Structures are given as structure tokens and as C-alpha cells.
Amino acid sequence: MRNTRKLTLPLLALSSTLLLSGPALAAEEKKAEPAPAPAAVKTPAAAPAPAPAAFTIPDPVAVVNGKPITKAAFDQYAQQLRGRAKVDSAEASKSLVDQLVMEELLVQEAGKQKLADDPQFKQQMEMVQRNLLASTMVRRMLSANAPSEEAIKKEYDTAVAAMKGKEYKASHILVDSEDKAKEVIAELKKGGNFAELAKAKSSDSSAANGGDLGWFTSSMMVPPFSEAVAKLEKGKTSEQPVQTPFGWHVILLEDTRDATPPSMEELKPQIAQMLQSRMVNDYLEKLKSGAKIEVKEIQAGEAKPAAAPEAAKEVKK
To answer: Which domains are delineated in the chain?
Structure first.
């Protein structure tokens, strides 16, 4: 039911959660503080953590059958593993050198077996080279055209302008026919519990939570649903079923509030990524428009019957 074509700001919920949980966390920390020690008892000070021992990476880091493995190769390998492995101690660095030694042994053995001349290997290397060249080209283009602060601010203002208005907290019951929706409305008028009816009758994934949809803006929902919500009074249920492409809805409006967008700093990484994606698409379209491209038509042939097994042929003879 949510309309994903328009820009939404998912950090709103996160911001609200953090604001609400801040005081509670502070209270818990305060409760967790130990009672002060009696004046007569002195608590010994904690010993400072030992500083990591200094170490130096030699150059080369190893020599395998006369072939040196340079410190530059070690540094590059460590850079590739950043985030997956730490190289902040002599022991960790030694482990990395061992990996490089094993790799060098395999490379030397591949050289003895002339693996580089294998046609399949050459084809794979060509694919790796093409992929590396293409990704490097994109990185260089983005590096030379990083989104400016002005562009990010402009995109943020556009997104915030689209958010102005109200936010709604509502629940719904989704069924597959108007008659079923009318039956639900009749049960609610008799005093039925909305959450219990949602759990029993709704086909939406929100049924397990009593139909709760949380907070949302009008732009996040399909028009018939958001229009019906906007007309409801707080605490009221829709008098008539609401039809959308997903089925028939019975809606309960629980609360409303003024929409409060997150700050630009919170959305800056998302906006920058979106601008970069747009930049890549524009760059590719520019390359495409200036190129002579001829795409050959793929011919779909008729499927040939599978050849009969040799054993079957012998039986037929």
C-alpha cells in the first residue's frame, strides 16, 4: 500500500525513537550507578590499559624462492582487508604476511604450470579487467564531480517541502470484498475491538499488530487511502469501506501531528548517494548518446528434442 515512487524520510521514526529513549536511558544509567563507598574504605584506582607495543613492517616483508614480497604489496593487501581484519599488532601483521607467502607460493606454482596461457583463465582475466576498468572510470568521474553543498541543500529543501503537512497514526483492516468490509464496520458499531478484528480478518501483514500502520504522511500511501485518512476525525473509524488496488479497507485514525523533518545532517549521506546515482546515470546517457551502438537481435530458435540415450537405441534395434 505504501507508495515507494516518492521520496520518503525513514529517519523520522529513528529520530523520534532516539529522542524518546534518551531520557529513559539516562534514568537507567543513573539507577545503575553503584552506591558510594564508605569514607573509611578507599577504592583502588583502575590500572590504565597498556599501550599497544610499537612495531615496524620491514621491506620486503618476505622473500619466497628469491621473489620478494614488498611492503607496498603488504600495505595494499591490508587496505583491501580493512573492516574485515585488523593489522594493529605484530601478531596480526605476521598472520597477514603468512597469507601473502601462501599466495606467492600458489602464484609461482601457477607460473610453472603455465596457467596464464590457459584459454579459460584468459577469458576470466578479460572479464575482471573490463569490470575493473568500468568501476574505476565511475569512481574517477564521481571523485571529480562530488555533490556540492549547494546541490545537497537544494535537494534537502525539495524533500522537506514535500513533507510539509500532517503525519497520521492509523490502523486498518484489509479484506478482499466490499461486503466483508461492511461486515467488519457493522461489528465495530456493535462494540467490536478493532485490533482483535484486524488479527482475525485482515489479510495485510499488519494484522499481527492489530492492523497498526505506525506514523506516515499522505505521500507514503496510495491516494484513496490517504484521502480517506485525511477526512477522518481522531479516534474515529471509516463509515464506508475504502477501495484501493490492494483491496477494501476499514480505517481507524488514532492520532495526528505536524510533520517534523529530520535535519540536513541526518539526511546528507542519503542525499549525496542519490545525487551520485543520478550523476552516474546522466554520465552513462551522455556516453550512450555520443556513441554508435548496434544491438543485434537475439534469435529465438525452436527447442530441439533431446537425443535418445544409447541404451534405448539398442533396445529399439
So the answer is: 62-141 (no CATH), 162-258 (3.10.50.40)
**What is the grid cell recorded at 111?**
607460473
Strand partners, 166: 258
Encode 15-37: b = buried (16+ Cβ within 10 Å), e = exposed: beeeeeeeeeeeeeeeeeeeeee
Record the cell numbers describing residue 70, joined without a space. 614488498
* pTM of structure: 0.48
Which residues are registered as beta bridge partners of 249?
174, 242
Q: How far apart are CA 173 and CA 198, in angstroms?
A: 5
Could you give the CA distance from residue 195 to residue 210 in angstroms, rounded to a whole number? 4
pLDDT at residue 14 is higher than 50: no
Q: Is 309 helix (H, G, I), strand (E, B) or coil?
A: coil
Task: Give pLDDT tens digits for 93-137.
Answer: 899 999 999 999 999 999 999 999 999 999 999 999 999 999 999
d(C-alpha 201, C-alpha 184), whole Å = 8
- In this prediction, what percent of the chain has a pLDDT beyond 70? 77
